[in-house]
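ARCHIVE CARD
Drawer: 12
Card no.: 0347
Subject: one protein chain, sequence and derived structure
Cross-reference: see card 0346
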Amino acid sequence: MYVKKKILSFISLTKKHILIINKALTVTRIIFGVLITIFGANKFFNFMPVPEEMPEAVMNYMTALISTKTLQLVGAVEVLAGLSFIFNKYGALMAIILMSVSINAVLFQLFLGPADITGALILLILNIVMLYAYRDKYKDLIAG
């Protein structure tokens, strides 16, 4: 009887931990979604200030992205991904798609503006957390 009580108390404690983890992941998913949506919308409406002085390499890169409409495509992906995280629809798919944006943001900051890499690293870490949160949805992808 004593062992049974110990096992039941352990299981209920584990359920409490799972509930807390699920709530933390929900809050993280929503915060991530809001941030991604804001940064994606900024690519269309330019409401965030742009630094006045940028290195020539950054200017050349950004000019190429803007002239080829690639920046707008990235903005659309970010807005769609952000909304999917906020509303918890297609989050697993968007976490995979957004990973390329996250990696490119880190590489861009690493090679062209290492002083500003913090935001890109936060984006990448949150993206990895979302991939981990949706890990059960990827089992068929990985197994096949």
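Annotation on reverse: The chain has six helices and no strands. The chain has a mean pLDDT of 89.
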